[in-house]
Every structure is written in structure tokens, then in C-alpha cells.
Amino acid sequence: MPASEASPATAGEAVAEEPGDESAVGPADVDAGGAEAEAGVPRGWRGRYPRVARGVWWGVTVLALVLVVGALLLPNRMAALQMNRFTRIPGEAIIGAAVLLALPRRTRIAVAAGAGTLLGALTVLNLLDIGFLEYLGRDFNLVLDWGLLDDAQSYLADSMGGTVAALAAIGVVLLVVLVLGLMALATVRLGNILARHPRRSTQGTLIAGTAWIACSVLGLQYAGIPVASDRVANRVTSEVRQVRDTLRDEAEFAKVARSDTFGNTPPDQLVPDLRGKDMIFAFIESYGRSAVEDPIIAPGVDATLETRTAALAKAGFHAKSGWLTSATYGGSSWLGHSTTLSGLWVDNQQRYRTVMASDHLSLTKAFQKTGDWDTVGVMPGVQKAWPEAEFYGLDKVYNAFQMGYQGPKFSWSTMPDQYALEAFQKLEHGKERDKPLMSEIILTSSHQPWAPIPTMVGWDELGDGSVFDAIQEAGKKAPDVIADSTKSREEYGKSVQYSVTALTEWLERYGTDDTVLVFLGDHQPISRVSGQNASRDVPISIVAKDPKVLDKIAGWNWTDGLKPAHDAPVWKMSSFRDRFLTAYGSTPHPTTG
């Protein structure tokens, strides 16, 4: 059969010719339609529309080149998504071209498809890093973080509705499949194009390789970025190192968790200076340093802290405040809770699981261990089984469904903080008992996306929570706030004001001479609110009527009142447990790993 009568390949299709076959289909082949017509062969669309066919061929080829080179150069930081990052010479592309040129057709296609799929996976990983850094202030961990994707879907369902969450999940899956598939097809196409003209391809590869080496040796830069790029090699090396370090950390941290300064302390030597006090440890969601110092957020929050400090003082309460550096950022609140109460640095999910399964003494369990306190947890954010109660030493836990709330959800938060605190008062704190009460309370109204936000109502008007129906309906909608950084910051500030007000009004209303409140933030809000490169610091305050309680921590040099000074002491969150136990008379009796 004459070459002109061969069935033409469609534009973008992987070509079957072996390397060195200069008759392979290319842009010039679209003119073959004329020969087909003269031979009496019906012309294909490429013969009828040669210019269109040529344009499609070039368009698909350029798209494949852009996809592959773009993936090789794609950074894993939102701030780095700038043009100068994509004007570099990727060394991996040169090596890949050399390898593909040396392979026979079938092997070449298989290798190209595999390499393209891996490049697509790397692209997905880079996008995950961008998202995790935006929300959690760190990269995605290949070993530990897959479970957080399910948490993200649950958060989206609670905030935006189940339909939106389901559509988002489907969209993400389709996007991943599309990225993997397109990258594989693009790499195969470029490999086949290289193989059609091996001499020119080899020459071009040698020239590109020489240019890369020269730029690397000379340290040439464009717009402050090295022209010679080995980003993929460095990225893969970094991921391998992270996986290795993560696996090593599991074993090492398990040993650390078995060591405990107060692990063997007899019950009668734990917190003797707090005997008879009703202890409350409260965490305010996303209450970070930015709430107190950011120029947009701080004015309202600072005014609230000053107002509430004065109101508490009028009721006989006084406070001291400092800073703790949280083990987490932007989310994963349970890491902040466990770090504070365990005295261990719990900054990932594996460490959290290790701690929860250990016998390490939590600060709250120390009170249970004495036998002199009843212990209770108020967890409006918990909507399923919560075995962690055993680690925290809680005799009883009230979850989202056990506090009688019949009002509306406020985005992710199942109920307003004011209602949760009033339920705590009715169900536990307000009851007569033989022992004082130690409580752990997690307040959730300041959880992102900060829309709608509840407002304070009369404490006697709370009822079953239905009073919040109109407030929730009139509030801002989450989609209107999420997409706007300024609005998010403003609404975040309002949510912190609400949570602080609810907690301190509760204390003012129901606190006694023997009530001691310790409250703090679990982490900073996401970087879109707290700002790029924000610290991980969160405020912490201890409030009491009995002056002896605050006298015990006078040596901490904390700031008087609810607002910590900018230069107040900053401690790692993991140091708080031991400092607190020591300050209130606990005697160390260590266990070792």
C-alpha cells in the first residue's frame, strides 16, 4: 500500500512508529489528503481541513509540553506560584528525554505512561501541600494525614451541607483521576514525538543538558530563582526523608510517652494546693495571638478582654495571662488539647494515637486520680463515640446530643457556647455534691468558617436553644465569608469576642469563691486569617477569687488581667502540665520508658 493511503492517526493520538522512522505522522502529514483524493481514497477530516488539523496537532502538543514542564516546576507553596518559578530548565525533563530516546517503542510508552502518572501524583501532592499549609500551617504527611481528608469532608458537610460535601468529594476524585490521566497521556505524546526524529531530538537533548549544566555551575538566576531546576529530585528526596522520619518518630515517641515526671506520684501528693476547688479547664476554638494583636481583629477582641476583666474584678475575680506555643495551627484542635493536658508535644495524628493509648498522666486525670474530685467533660463538638475520655480521666462526658439542645447549628458548631455553658451549669456544676468538680470544656462557637455567629441572649431565656433560630437565620452565610479574607478576619474576631464573653459571663454569674478557671486557645486560625508566617502562640489565662491561687503562679511573670502583654512569657504548650502541677504542690515521682 502506498504511504499516502495509510490510515492517518488522529491529532493527539500516540503514534506507533519506531524511533528513527522519519515517515511518522507529524504536522506535515495533514497535506496528505490531496494525494488521497487523487488516488480515489475518501479524504479524512485532516485532509479536508489541513490548517485546522495542523492547529490541533500543535495545540495538543503544546498543551502536553505545558502540562509536563509545569508539573516539573510546580511549587508546593501558594506564595511561590509566580511566573519566575516556571521560567526554569527542569533537569528531570532532560534526563527523561534521554531515557525515552534510548528505549524501544513498547517499553518507551510504558515508561512514559508510568512517569507521567507519577508526575501527576506529585502534582496532587504539591496541591495537598498548598492546601495543608494554608489551613494547618504545615505540609501534607504521606504517612499520617490521609485520615484528615475524611475529617475535611465532615467539616465541609457540617459547615456547607451534605450535598456540597458530596459534590466536592466527587469533584476532587474526578480531578485527581483527570490529573493522573492527562499527565500520563501528555508524557506518552511527548515521548513519541521525540522518537519520530531521534537525531534532532538527541541534539536538542544534548543542547538542553549542556545549558542546564552551565546554568547550574555558573549559578545563573532569573528574578532571583536559579535557572537550572532539580525541583522534582529535591521534592522526592524530601518526601522520602519525611516518610523515614515519621516512621522513626513513631517508635521514639512511644518511649517518650512512657516517661512521666508525675507518673508514680501518689494521689495525696497531686495538686494538694487546689483541694476543695472547682476546677475548670476550658479551650476556646481558634483563639490565637492574632485575635489579640492583629490590627483588624484585635480592636474588638481587646476591648472585650478589657471589659470582661473589669466585670470579673467587680465580681471578685482576678486573672493572670500568658502565651503558649501550640503544637498545631489552623485546625486539628485535639492536638492542642492533648499537648496541653499530657505535657507531651503531640503535633501529628500518630503521636495522638500513641498518647491516647498510653498510661501517661493527663492533667485532668491527675484530679481524678486523687479521688477528691468528680470529673466531667462538656464536648459539644463530639458527635460520635469518644474513647479519649479514659485518657483524660473523665467520669462522665456530655456530647452534642446529650445537653438537650433543640436549636439550630451555627455552621460547624452544634450549639452556641452560651447554651453549652448553661447546660453544664444545670447538668453538673449547679448540683449539690460531696466532692468538688473538675471539668474539661471545649467551646466551639469560634470554629471556622465563622458564619453565622451566635449572639448573647439573656441567660434566663436560653430554654432548649430555640431562641437561637432567628439569630442563626439572620446571621451571615458561610459561603459569603469563606471566600473573603477581610470578612473572615472580621467575623473570626466577633466569634472570639462571643466565646470569651459567654465564658466569663458564666463565671461571673455562677462562679464561687472556690471556682478556678483555666482557659486558653487550642491554636491560631488559618493563615488566611492569622496571616502568613504568623506565630503559633495562643493566650492562656487563670482566673480565681481566692488570691492564694494566683499567688502560686506569681513567679510565672504573667500579665494581670485577661489580655497577655505582647512581651509576656511564651512557653511551649507541652510545658504547661508540669509547670501547673508543680506550682500547686505536686511532688514528682517519675516513671521511665
TrEMBL record:
This is CDP-alcohol phosphatidyltransferase. It comes from Streptomyces antibioticus. InterPro entries: Alkaline_phosphatase_core_sf. Keywords: Membrane, Transmembrane, Transmembrane helix. Residues 1-37 are annotated as: Disordered. The keyword Protease does not apply. Residues 24-37 have a biased composition (Low complexity). The chain crosses the membrane at residues 55-74, 86-103, 110-133, 164-185, 206-225.
